[in-house]
Amino acid sequence: MKKFLGALLLLILCQCFSAQVFADEISDYAYQILDLQYQKKSSQALAKANEAIKKYPNNSELYLHRAIVYDDLNQKRAALTDLDKAISLDPKNSDAYYWRGAVKMDMNSPQSAYKDFTTCLQLKPNSSSCYSMRGLVRIELGDEGGMKDLEKGNAIMDEYN
Fold first, then answer.
1. Is 15 among the domain residues?
2. Which of 14, 30, 36, 104 has the CB geometry, 3.0–4.6 Å to 41, for a possible disulfide?
3. Is there a contact between 146 and 117 (Cβ–Cβ < 8 Å)?
4. Containing domain of residue 84, as a range?
């Protein structure tokens, strides 16, 4: 029994260590992608994102990062595909809903963008950027409540400044 418990403990420790190594490597990929984007090297950022997704095909954050690169490259359909994938992998990824809403705004789909920003706010109720973007969409849709969202976004931002 002691051998079994020892082996079980060793297995659990190995899995925890392994999970941390994967998390660190995924974070490194994400940082490299963002750094390349910051340097205006979008094609290199896309190659790095493709490499990362090939290695970790079930990671929501990597699909989100690649979608942002696609958006920078003005490849809106590819960005939407990756954002849909990010959300299917992690339905609580508020950033994926935010970005999908932003891409849908760019594609002149305000009703659908409104839904994504609303979902973003359900997941992240103190997001000034989600309130602001939803406010803009609501104004575009002729909804007078858009100004309230913009004011709420500004109020949240003022709280953190």
1. no
2. 36
3. no
4. 30-91
| pTM above threshold 0.85 | no
Q: Is there a single domain that holds both residue 72 and residue 42?
A: yes
DSSP string, 28-42: HHHHHHHHHHHTT-H
Task: List C-alpha distances in Å: 9 to 12, 20, 82, 142.
Answer: 5, 17, 38, 60
- For the chain, 161 residues long, give each residue's pLDDT as a single digit of tens: 444 333 333 334 334 333 444 567 878 888 888 888 888 999 999 999 999 999 999 999 999 999 999 999 999 999 999 999 999 999 999 999 999 999 999 999 999 999 999 999 999 999 999 999 999 999 999 999 999 999 998 898 877 75
Number of domains the chain is built from: 2
Asked if residue 84 lies in contact with residue 103, where contact means CB atoms within 8 angstroms, the answer is: no
